[in-house]
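Suppose a classmate hands you a notebook page containing two proteins, each written out with its sequence and a corresponding row of structure tokens. How would you begin to make sense of it? This section walks through that situation. The first entry is reproduced here exactly as it would appear on such a page.
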Amino acid sequence: MERESDTKGQVHDRLPYVLSEARGQSTANFLTPGVDIIYLHQHASSTDRNARQRVVGAILPNFEAWLGRKHGSLTFRLTQVLTGHGCFGEYLCRIGREVTPRCHHCGEVRDSAQHTLEECPAWEPERHILVSYVGRDLSPPAVIAAMLEDSEAWRAVVSFCEVVMCKKEAAERDRERADPSRRRRHQGGADQRSDRSIQ
């Protein structure tokens, strides 16, 4: 059994190699299994310690398997759930888009990525399907381990993220239409949300 400090040392030793692979690659080629971890870390933002801890805590126990995987790619919405940067009350409150971190779908005091993945009753039908592929443990490390073990589990997690985040985003747009003062300020006036997979 490898000690956690040994694993952290191996990850630390491997990161310069992974980073050097990432430099100079186009966006389309950037998110290969060996370098998408860098994208996740960057998406988690250097100023958001919680998001970085969520990503690193989920992937670190499975780092070598993540780097060597033969299936699965990151999507925009999977990245939102892994990092906690998306239509979650906690995140929207932190960036000034919500007054409170509460969940608009169930009224829970704190809507986070984990609340969405594991607890919110609004997503029970989608969660029921997800659990049939990844098991009852929906902690980030357990979900990542299941995704890495089975391509069907990876697809089930991506499907959950796509369906649920689309619904959360639609509800957020409805709230913005109802209260125009909540709308984002965009350069060029266009809404820049992405529905594309990051390949």
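The notebook's second entry, a different protein, reads as follows.
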Amino acid sequence: MKLNPFLHLSLSVLLYNGAVAEIQYSIETNWNGKPVVHPAANLTLSVGPTNDTFTIHVQAAYFGSPEIPDCEAGYPYDALYNFEVVETFFLCSESNEYVELEFAPCGAHLVLLLYPTRNALVEYLPLEFTAQIDRQAGVWIGDVIVPTSFLPADVNRFNAFAIHSGTPEEQVQHCYTTLAGQHSEKNNLNVL
């Protein structure tokens, strides 16, 4: 079980001065603490095309379930977390402000700026997000450009999740272990 004190220096260096070229993460654990039984979802955070952006590249297994009704690629989608997604959380532990970025294989996304836990300050911010599904290979790939202005000041914690259909133990997976493998929003943020 890997617990994350998080790479405080690496993330802040990437996001705030671009000195680190990229950071890679893998979502390898189910909520019950057991390893995923399919290829892990992988995320790469990189310096963006401009000084005030960074990119996230997602490569994940494609399950196709649950399908998103009326999905419009490149646009925000309400309650996206109820469908197959990969989501990232960036938190400032001093202020408890955080941003949740959600990405779906169909190209929909959702940005939520939150403070405190689950209280949305801003929703539906636009993003440059594209996604492609390779049904034959059973994978999807997404690329997004994120303005650093979407992040709280002094981000120092991070976690990532993959959500899809499956048995209850396999529906939600995480990059960094939650407390005792429990599934709750409070525990999500404790390990960010």
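A careful reader of the second entry would note: The helical segments are 8-17, 185-190.
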